[in-house]
Amino acid sequence: MSTPGLWCVVPAAGRGLRVGGDRPKQYLPIAGRLLIEHTLDRLARHPGIVGLMVVLSPGDALWPGLDNLHRKPVRTTPGGAERCDSVLAGLQALPAEIDETDFVLVHDAARPCVRLDDMSRLIGTAGAGDGGLLGAPLRDTLKRADEGGRSALTEPRDQRWRAFTPQMFRRGALSAALREASRRGITVSDEAMAMELAGHAPLLVEGAEDNIKVTTAADFALAEFLLGRTAPAGEE
Ligand SMILES: Nc1ccn([C@@H]2O[C@H](COP(=O)(O)OP(=O)(O)OP(=O)(O)O)[C@@H](O)[C@H]2O)c(=O)n1
Ligand SMILES: C[C@](O)(CO)[C@H](O)COP(=O)(O)O
Q: Among 2, 29, 142, 204, which has the highest number of CB atoms less than 10 A from its own CB?
């Protein structure tokens, strides 16, 4: 039996090494709350989401122990060495009532600024086919650097997109695609890559470019500004 709504797997088992903080970045403060709390609150506010499966680093002692947000269940499970391993673990830990053909969302804990209306557009359009992902067409010129840090060549920009999250796929198809990529020794950088390798054609759904992934220390100031806006983005 499927559920009348979407669960979201939230990979949050990373170490945040590129930030260089004294703890994993998902547990660093932004605008008075933990980074992860902003992200989970944003996700739980979306009416189409019915539950969150947060994937934590094994032995994570910093998890604040949330079990419910906006009257929606929050569950946790241990993740793996790579993001894709954590996503697969999250899929496996979802409640039994979610069957293989149900769509699920995957959204990085490190992306606290996702807009609710962008999520609605993804859910409303990508569910008609193989699933899809939020992203944005590349708007800057793209350079390939040589070993000396110089521009070796300019990459073609047409039909190039930046991939964001959430990404939305059927639980069974995504699990199988992730397992197959792992079996082939391929570390996929997002769920769509695994689906592409499995022969699917994920739909690209354009979303706001302020859906930033907090990756370095410099990203915290921008995230703080974006989160400080009067109303959660997408409800303005
Ligand atoms: N083994 C991993 C690695 C990453 N992630 C999660 O995947 C998201 C995107 O990954 P990234 O931004 O690279 O986070 P980190 O891996 O923590 O960053 P870094 O590479 O700087 O250590 C983050 O929410 C991170 O917690 C995860 O669940 N499991
Ligand atoms: C999934 C993702 O956020 C899409 O852009 C990105 O691939 C994550 O990369 P990371 O190196 O694991 O942060």
A: 204
Q: Residue 216 in 3-state DSSP?
A: coil
- Nearest by Cα to 133 from 209, 202, 46: 202
Ligand 2 touching residue 213 (CB < 6 A): yes
- pLDDT at res. 231: 60
* Ligand 1: lining residues by beta carbon, under 6 Å: 11-18, 24-26, 55, 79-83, 86, 108-110, 213, 215
Say how far apart CA 95 and CA 75 lie, in whole Å. 9
Question: Mean pLDDT, the chain, as a whole number?
Answer: 95
Show Cβ contacts of residue 139 under 8 Å, excluding neighbours closer than 6 positions. Answer: none
Q: What ipTM does the predicted assembly reach? A: 0.98
Q: How far apart are CA 167 and CA 191, in angstroms?
A: 7
pLDDT at 230: 64
Q: How far apart are CA 200 and CA 100, in angstroms?
A: 16
Please work out whether the CB of residue 189 comes within 6 Å of at least one atom of ligand 2. Answer: yes
pLDDT tens profile 161-191: 999 999 999 999 999 999 999 999 999 999 9
Residue 88 scores a pLDDT above 60:
yes
CA distances from 86 to 36, 59, 123, 179, 185 (A): 16, 14, 22, 12, 16
What does pTM read for this prediction? Answer: 0.96
**Domains, the chain, ordered by start:** 6-135+162-234 (3.90.550.10)
Q: Which ligand 1 atom sits closest to the C-alpha of 15?
A: 17
Query: Phi/psi class of residue 234: alpha, beta or left (left: φ > 0; alpha: ψ in -120 to 50)?
Result: left
